[in-house]
Fold this protein.
Amino acid sequence: MEPIPVAQDSYTGAVESARGFIAKVYLWMSLGLFVTASVSVAPILILGEVAYYNLIAENIMIIFGLMIVELAIVFGLTFLINKIPAVLGFLAFLVYSFLNGITLSPIFLVYTGASIFSTFLVCAIMFGGTSILGYITKIDLTRFGGFLMMALFGLLGVMVVNLFLQSNMMSWLISFIGVILFVGLTAYDTQKIKNMAGSIDASSEEGKKASIMGALALYLDFINLFLFLLRLLGRRN
């Protein structure tokens, strides 16, 4: 009688679970980007540039209010994801993607549609290449996590300072550093998701929640990389 290949079956099941987890992460991230892109371009297409500009000018405080709601959703998901059902976490992610589309839509009043589209393609290529690199590299990127977080907070502080200084040179430097930083965060988050995939059951409630948070991390990396690239490459109206 031949031995039952229990170990082989277990290994195969673990590999399939890891693949399923990673597929979910990128599927949710892509869905979030699709929602954001669709919502952001809709007002300019439906209302036209002049009417939309007037709408924004009359309701600018609502835009700022929505930004605060977005921050609340991100922090809420980060701290409460383990206390809420996965389906609620997924709905919160979609709501965030929708609101982010609204708050990003004014970029179509600042930059030309052609430059936004070309920058998006450049961003997609950079993000894809960096994510692949983060997945296949043998270098342990987790040791850079603390440095990347400190750099992120430092960059946010400099951006706040430049709101008062209005320095074009500092603005260019912030955008350049922002691109490098979010390229690094993309590789870091990708490797973290890969490592997580090997130790979690994708079909479990815990796995579903982890895939949502992984998608949110990559979504934020992509959006911020795009915005910093747009400041460097975008052609203004």
